[in-house]
Write a structure and sequence with these properties.
The complex is a heterodimer. Chain A is mainly alpha-helical. Helix content of chain A is about 70%, strand content about 0%. Chain A is built from eleven helices and no strands. In chain A, helix 4 (about 90-110) runs antiparallel to helix 5 (about 115-145) and helix 9 (about 210-235) crosses helix 10 (about 245-265). The mean pLDDT of chain A is about 90. Chain B is α+β, with helices and mostly antiparallel strands. Chain B has 16 helices and 13 strands. Chain B has helices at about 25-35, 90-100, 175-180, 185-190, 200-215, 220-245, 250-270, 290-315, 320-325, 335-340, 345-350, 355-360, 380-405, 455-465, 475-480, 485-490, and strands at about 5, 10-15, 40-50, 55-65, 70-80, 80-85, 105, 135, 150-155, 160-165, 420-430, 435-440, 445-455. In chain B, the strands form four sheets. In chain B, strands 1-5-4-3 form a four-stranded antiparallel beta sheet, with helices on one face. In chain B, strands 2-11-12-13 form a four-stranded antiparallel beta sheet. In chain B, helix 2 links the parallel strand 6 (about 80-85) and strand 7 (about 105). The longest helix of chain B has 29 residues, at about 220-245. The radius of gyration of chain B is 22 Å and the shape is globular. The chains are: A mainly alpha, B alpha+beta. At the A-B interface, helix 5 and helix 10 of A face strand 8, helix 6, helix 7 and helix 9 of B.
């Protein structure tokens, strides 16, 4: 329950913090930290327009997408307390409930019949598929490290007494942060700021959404950011000795993740589209390295 | 054979002096033969309605870079005549335009389709295949850009073919310039043909008008116009560099170049009251002379600009993640550039030296010993480098022109009447490439025909070739690296 509340609170700041970082680093004044929330509030007051070609799938996709992310959040533990949903191998449920949401986004994009959105859908499907092994390898190695098989047990039984374990924990955290950027279509794979449909991945799939639906998709995006950062935080929470320390660590890791994403987006150009798979494969290779190292314990 | 006529840039001749080749076969084979040399390219090819009803005079202007002259010759044919395509790819768009205006058909033309008047049901090139898909973009785009339709045929992410359809901004500029109107109004029209080349266009317009009147502009006018032209080049190149960085999502470059453009356009605002240099150049006069205080301001602005520009351009030319996007993307080979008759920046990036400042110098360029920047790879990176180095070059030119600027020497001279039955062609090098204005006067010394040719008219084909075999997600960066004009093409 606590993780649900914390993730919801963190999601309010996450996107705003990224854009603040970016505007400060490029020497601009930039919008305030709450601008994303103001945008959502504005969208919620607006009416919704649907393309003439779409079916019920298009209308239900934002809700399914939102619900899938909330369901995934329910499984996330905090400081030894299990999430609302907790069972053996719940991280498999976590990964595939997110995929379900994404699947609906993809078929909804195809539903519009627009050639742009079909292109975006095929790109999104490809990159999520490629990113999946990395996630399971990381979670698998954390499971091996703690000899457990559910989120709450994995995260509360990681033994950071040895330096090797700490190094592996840090590498796993880096992989999860990069996965966060891939899953949320950020640089270097996708550019959320571009207005050029031909280069977009995620943005082009939601081009036709408006009003409440678009607001829901944005909210889901913010939640997803905080969700992955919460997994990163969970790896290190055993290091905190008190409850207050755990909350402080959680907040610090959320903020750090947002700032890191902002810094990367400020100083790097985007990859060429055909380099994206190579980048994700490299990530998977590192994840393999992590899992092999855990066998050595 | 016939008497060849070679004229200088912005020289006025009697219309009757233009040699006429009576036989179309000879006319078209001479065009082909003449364009066989690398140093020659066609700067304009158009039809003019003749005083004899039902007849059209086709006029060809071919620039010769070696002799620094322009060869002009013509052919008289019937309206709605059926002629043969001359076999030069660079002229195919001109032939389509002539067909649109006079109904003349060119047989054997590679793709006889509309230039500016596509109907809604225009049949785009289409591939009947299960494996390829088509993507249509525009004419209304996301973002504040001009209208144009792009039809891609793709296999997965790879572009196999791109068809570009323009004409959504046809305003009938050439007719407006011929119609009876005060000179000031026409000058406004001329500089609004393509808003990003306001000075390039108004320079060409002033050259044509002054030459037809036998008016020789004062030294101060020439200096002011040349400086304004180079400042326009700096402004637009810097803005485009910002946009290129933006397209590869390199935020730092986009922000820095975007900021650098502002002080230069703000200086133009101080100088002539318009940030894009509109009203800066007017025929027969010098509305805004440079003053010593403006000069100090300009030199100060340029010094500050150059420091940051050097740092940022140095960075993007060495930054791996930017280079990996720019290098080997959107390649136009030297042969392709030559075949389609590319001009200006697009040509210079593909190892083809086409620069009016060198080949047909006007204003103060003959005293500047201009050496065009030529790159050899023809990719987006080459076009970026041409921009960066042209900015450095323009900074030098502006400084040396300002140093010898003849302050306060301009004296107003009365405007004269235009010579009757005359022809004049003026070429200027805008930031995008050569801008060509041709004018013809009637027996009363009034315009009877005014033909404008924007560099984009030559270069749109280069974009279509550049994107072939590239990923569709790289189209925007290819497009931005050329930054061609839609309104300059549509007129």
């Amino acid at each position: 329950m606590l993780s649900l509340v914390l993730i919801f609170i963190a999601s309010l700041f996450f996107s705003g913090l990224i854009s603040r970082t970016k505007s400060i680093l490029s020497g601009r004044k930039g919008p305030g930290i709450f601008q994303p929330l103001k945008d959502v509030a504005r969208l919620l007051r607006k009416g919704t327009v649907y393309p003439a070609t779409c079916s019920f799938i298009y209308r239900m996709a934002p809700v399914v997408y939102f619900a899938s992310v909330v369901a995934a959040i329910l499984t996330v533990p905090f400081n030894g307390l299990s999430g609302i949903l907790s069972f053996q191998y719940d991280f498999v449920f976590f990964a595939y409930i997110l995929s379900l949401g994404k699947f609906f986004c993809i078929i909804a994009a195809m539903d519009t019949g627009s050639s742009f959105e079909g292109m975006g859908a095929s790109r999104e499907a490809l990159y999520s598929m490629l990113a999946e092994p990395a996630f399971f390898l990381v979670l698998g190695s954390l499971g091996l490290l703690s000899c457990n098989n559910s989120f709450v047990d994995i995260f509360s039984h990681i033994d950071f007494s040895s330096t090797q374990a700490l190094v592996l924990g840090i590498v796993a955290a880096i992989i999860l942060t990069i996965l966060n950027m891939i899953e949320n279509s950020r640089l270097p794979l996708d550019d959320p700021k571009t207005h050029l449909e031909l280069t977009m991945i995620h943005e082009v799939m939601i081009l036709d959404y408006s009003g409440v639906d678009l607001a829901l998709i944005h909210i889901t995006g913010y939640l997803k950011f905080a969700l992955y950062a919460a997994l990163v935080a969970n790896i290190f929470i055993p290091l905190a000795r008190s409850f207050i320390g755990a909350v402080a660590l959680f907040v610090a890791i959320q903020a750090l993740s947002a700032i890191i994403i902002g810094v990367i987006e400020s100083f790097y150009a985007r990859y060429r589209m055909n380099h994206n798979p190579e980048f994700i494969f490299a990530l998977t290779a590192v994840a393999f390295l992590v899992i092999f190292s855990t066998f050595c314990f | 054979m016939f008497e060849h006529l070679y004229i200088n840039n912005a020289e006025t001749i009697d219309f009757a002096a233009i040699p006429q080749i009576a036989d179309y076969g000879e006319f078209s084979s001479y065009i082909k033969e003449s364009l066989g040399s690398v140093s020659r390219h066609c700067v304009n090819f158009f039809g003019v309605e003749n005083t004899i009803a039902g007849k059209v005079i086709l006029i060809v202007c071919i620039a010769d870079d070696e002799s620094h002259k322009i060869e002009v010759f013509s052919h008289l044919c019937d309206k709605n005549a059926v002629l043969a395509h001359c076999g030069v790819a660079a002229l195919e768009r001109y032939e389509r335009e002539i067909h649109e205006n006079f109904g003349i058909t060119f047989e054997g033309h590679p793709w006889f389709k509309p230039v500016r008047t596509a109907a809604d049901d225009y049949p785009f090139y289409h591939a009947d295949s299960e494996e390829v898909h088509e993507v249509g973009v525009g004419p209304i785009h996301a973002g504040v850009i001009e209208p144009g339709h792009f039809r891609f045929i793709c296999s997965g992410e790879k572009i196999l073919h791109l068809e570009i359809m323009l004409g959504y901004q046809k305003r009938g500029v050439e007719k407006l310039l011929v119609a009876e109107a005060p000179l000031e109004k026409k000058a406004l029209t001329a500089e609004s043909i393509a808003g990003d080349s306001a000075i390039g266009y108004s320079n060409a317009f002033a050259m044509v008008n002054e030459s037809l009147c036998g008016f020789s502009p004062s030294e101060e006018m020439l200096y002011a116009r040349t400086i304004a032209g180079e400042l326009e080049r700096i402004t637009i190149h810097t803005g485009d560099l910002s946009a290129i960085c933006g397209d590869v999502a390199y935020q730092l470059g986009s922000a820095v170049f975007g900021r650098l453009r502002t002080p230069i356009i703000n200086f133009m605002q101080k100088w002539c009251g318009n940030r894009l240099g509109k009203t800066m150049v007017r025929p027969f006069g010098l509305p805004y002379a440079l003053t010593p205080s403006l000069r100090d301001d300009l030199l100060d602005t340029l010094a500050k600009f150059e420091k940051d520009f050097r740092e940022m351009s140095h960075k993007i030319r060495r930054f791996p993640s930017v280079l990996s996007r720019l290098e080997k993307t959107g390649v136009v080979t030297a042969e392709q550039a030559r075949e389609i008759g590319a001009v200006g920046m697009a040509a210079k990036s593909s190892a083809l030296c086409r620069d009016i400042r060198l080949s047909h110098p006007y204003f103060k360029y003959d005293s500047l010993t201009h050496e065009p920047i030529v790159k050899h790879h023809g990719d987006v990176y080459s076009r970026t480098c041409v921009r960066i180095e042209e900015v450095y070059q323009s900074l030098e030119y502006v400084r040396s022109l300002v140093a010898e600027y003849p302050f306060g020497t301009h004296k107003a001279q009365p405007a004269q009447n235009m010579r009757p039955n005359s022809f004049c062609i003026a070429l200027t090098e805008g930031w995008r490439g050569e801008i060509c204005h041709c004018a013809l006067t009637d027996a009363d010394g009034k315009f009877v025909s005014y033909k404008v040719c924007d560099p984009s008219f030559h270069n749109w084909m280069a974009l279509a070739l550049a994107v072939r075999g590239n990923e569709i997600s790289d189209f925007p960066i290819c497009n931005k690296s050329f930054n061609l004009s839609y309104c300059g093409h549509d007129l």
